[in-house]
User: What shape does this take?
Amino acid sequence: MTIAIVLKGYPRLSETFIAQEILGLERRGLPLHLVSLRHPTDPARHPIHDEIAAPLLYLPEYLHQEPRRTLRAWRNAARLPGYAAARTALAADFRRDPTRNRIRRFGQACVLAAELGGAVTHLHAHFLHTPGSVARYAAMMLGIGFSLSGHAKDVWTTPQWDLAGKLADAAWTVACSAAATDTLRTIAPGAPLETVYHGLDLDRFPLFTDSRPPRTGTMPDDPVRLLAVGRAVGKKGFDGLLTALAALPPALHWRLTHIGAGPDLENLQRQAQTLGLSDRIDWQGARTQDHVLQAMRAADLFLMTSRITADGDRDGLPNVLMEAQSQALPVIATAVSAIPELIEPDRTGVLVPPEDPDALCAAILRLAADSTERTRFGVAGAARLRERFGSGPGLDRLAVRLRDSAAIPQPTGVPNANARAA
Assistant: This one.
């Protein structure tokens, strides 16, 4: 008996929350098999990926790249008792989404069902869009259940008709924030939905207990150290951050470190050059979690400038915010999506409206000049994180859900989480 975890890509530097969850489920005794729709593209991997023991199956990223494998899988899948139902579901979906991508997802589901069908008793997909489609079709073919985990872009940019069908068919769905759960409930009011925070593995992020220097930006040779971590994409709002930084008074000395890769990185670097900020910014690109942790310990202030893009895309509850708070690093963030579920304004951090460089500039100026207030926010944020956002309760709840759905008995020596999850 095995639970297949369907992922869009694995491993990914930007999805440590998924790796944390997989490892946590393994440690709770669940037998897992990872299924990835794409091969990795990142130049490095986090150490946590090397701790995960689950076998990994890569599906054909594009069907024409592996025609023999795809054809063989289709022939075998067509003999499965649920193939006709899956084909009917595909036909209904294709009428509304007549794209090659839709056919590709069905072909990938055939490969999954044909190559893993004998061992899998439940499918669980991270992200509601393409991984959710593959899991749904494959589960139909195999005559087993599937569940879904919703996050951010998949919740707010997937067509509502597509979401409604998957949520109705799924055995259950979890979302990683109350904001995402509320949105999904408006789309599928009768579907079984639950909020399960990823939280943070606090053993992996021990509290930073050293005191930070009381920098206030008055010394040119000891500037206030600002940190921003995230992919260079529109929803992260880094262009607005650069605009806000350019408006800071010349008398304030600061330096920004940005960690993250992405399609907009070169545009951001050009914008920084145009604004005369290039000599104050260290663009570090994608880095491992250990490197990010060290950068957080060296920083004075963390900046998260999320926004809602024109197509509705936005962050959910960025794990990197929790990572920053685990290190007692004070944060300034925008009040978007689930971020206010973590940050209590003027108690555990500062929230500003999105798309408001003036408000962001004022908040940076305020905290850059006041090391005492930074310390107060950092300490309070770390305390609330440890009280409310540890990963243990969410993992316990998810393990119970998956174990029950896959009919996997509780292994000897693994604590039963039902009492804690009730």
Observations:
- Residues 224-388 form a domain with the Rossmann fold fold (CATH 3.40.50.2000).
- The chain is about 45% helix and 15% strand.
- The two ends are 25 Å apart (CA to CA).
- The longest helix spans residues 371-388.
